[in-house]
Fold this protein.
Amino acid sequence: MPRLTLIVPAYNVQGYIGECLDSVLGQDFTDFEVIGVDDCSPDGSGAILDTYAARDDRLRVLHLTENVGLGRARNAGLDQATGDYILFLDSDDTLAPGSLSAIAARLDATGDPDILIYDYTRTYWDGRLLRNKRSDLMTEDGPAVFSLTERPQLLDLLQIVWNKAYRRDFVTRHGFQFPPGYYEDAPWTYSSLIAAERIAVLDRSCVMYRQRREGGNILRTVSRKHFDVFDQYDRVFAFLDGRPDLDSWRPALFRKMVDHFLTVLEKPGRLPRNARAEFFHRAAKDYRARLPEGFERPPGGRGYKYALLGVDSYSAFFGLTRANNVRHRARLGGQARIGRAKRAALGVFYRSQLRMPVDENLAVFSAYWGRGYSCNPAAIEAELGRLAPQVRRVWAVRSEHRDRVPKGVEKVIVGSRDYWAVMARAKYLTNNVNFGDTIVKRQGQIHLQTHHGTPLKTMGLDQAQYPASTNMDMEKLLRRCDRWDFSLSANRFSTTVWERVYPCRYTTLETGYPRNDVLVNATAADVVAARRELGLADGATAFLYMPTHREYEKSFAPRLDLSKLAEDLGPDVTLLVRGHYFYKPTGRLAELQAGGRIIDVSAHGDVEQLYLAADALITDYSSAMFDYANLDRPIVIHADDWETYRVVRGTYFDLMAEPPGAVATTQERLTEILGSKEWCDEKAAALRAAFRERFCDYDDGRAAERVVRKVFLGEETLLPVVPLAERTPAPSPAEALTQV
């Protein structure tokens, strides 16, 4: 029997639950069990729970067959709990290091109280940490164990269950269960606190309470479900009615009830406008029914609102609220004037176009900050032309990259009059990065963010932890991301990262990457044609070398002595070398090409054709490895500066421990791998198979079609994904030569 049981319900939290579980399973105190409850989550939360459970037998997973809501999901966990104490943790929150040790020690020191209350800290997307505003109530001065009568002010803490440890036999004796509906913590919290004979506190912040920028909780949901608050207080007072010895708590709980009703009425974004009067009248009815004899209203304006509720005067209450909002609206008006000034700076023409109707058959595409026609947007644009030729497709490119757009593809130059016209009026805006800050997201427009790789290195908000890697303004970044309607994902791993580091109100589409369709659909003739276009001899082995960008390097300088590597590998090997697009061209690669067995492909417009032509990929930390893995061809990692890179940029997993193939940290070792069969032997194949299983979830050759049907044609259901084991990638160069 463990000392502690932690119950962690999960629903649509795939971007956060891994961090939550890491914070629990990594605690220095180990005498606990975790019950993860998959509340029939439609995302990958259940699969993530299963993955962690396979690695740590302290975690057990319950998969519910229907979505029952937070309260009843907790009840399912309660039924399985065996610990002395029960703790609840929401799956997007985390435990601070050492918390379970501190909780267990305090339980021991206070002789196993009915309830132990501990503190929490609000954590914000921008890195701010704010401890509970009522942390003063957590002082350990005075008796170590007490009843609520001795410290009634504890009722003023937020009515939450996840900042307390409950003795399991206390819970069982009183039959505490969570009800369905919104505000399910209120009946449990108030009933357990007034029933407890022995309470203790721990003056330590144990829970890191995530304040999700995009919301994600009921407090930001406009719904009639807020009427559930009445049922919850029915349950609180029913508990009191059955326990006459607790009758003295009626005034305090009446005050909590009325305050809660007023909060729902006064907070914007909760009740539908046409439901406010109905809610008020129901609140007034409960007020009169439960008003304790001799109850004294609070002083001042709060007490006046109590009085208006008591006489059921909604018109007077509404007038009071409207008067109180005048100053608030004045402040908002000032902000609006600033906003109008900023929009005016976009130009008279752009503003005029923004007033024109949205063109339902106009789509704008861009990639890599206007660098040309490529990546996921290019694959989507081509598929859109096949499935919906009536849609006009326009590419936005910078002037210096206009020649990178194929002939026959319509283009506009970024910043031109035509550019502002299509950006203002297009129904669809697709990019693999963000459009500029000056672009206005119009009502009726759809922004599709495709991304351009699977993240090994930290991205988005996580980059703030690595200031040497970026000087990005995170608030501006998230305002740009607020424009997204859809975010594409190539694999479940990426989904969990994107949803956490770009916390905005978009819909994730787990479609696979459209740019990778060709890696599954290409024929033997396509592979041979890709090699012939590069001038590769039929019998040559082609290694594609694609190192990534490093923030601590200003220009591309190969980290290998390429001429020596080519010489050591012999005349039957050709090196295709592609520098990262962030780097400006240098003369160094041109010099190296003179020998004939090194080809600079940095300016090649279609990296997927390079993938098809290559027998193997050599890279360091580039996302190319995740795409290339779809070909099921060998990948070799050359990582001579791994420790520096992970410290400067940060990474999401240890590439040295989970590589897609053989690993070299020196040129000598790389030459040894490539000069033997290590690069393509059984060990390398086994590593690649595990890598593919983890990162090639959805790339089955139909990603572009999924995106077009969902985003542009409005189809509700995504095409099913062909399982990895049933896919047939494009043939290898050796196989292709035998088939043509």
Remarks:
- The CA atoms of residues 359 and 643 lie 50 Å apart.
- Residues 323-330, 581-589 have pLDDT under 50 and may be disordered.
- DSSP finds 28 helices and 22 strands in the chain.
- The longest helix spans residues 326-344.
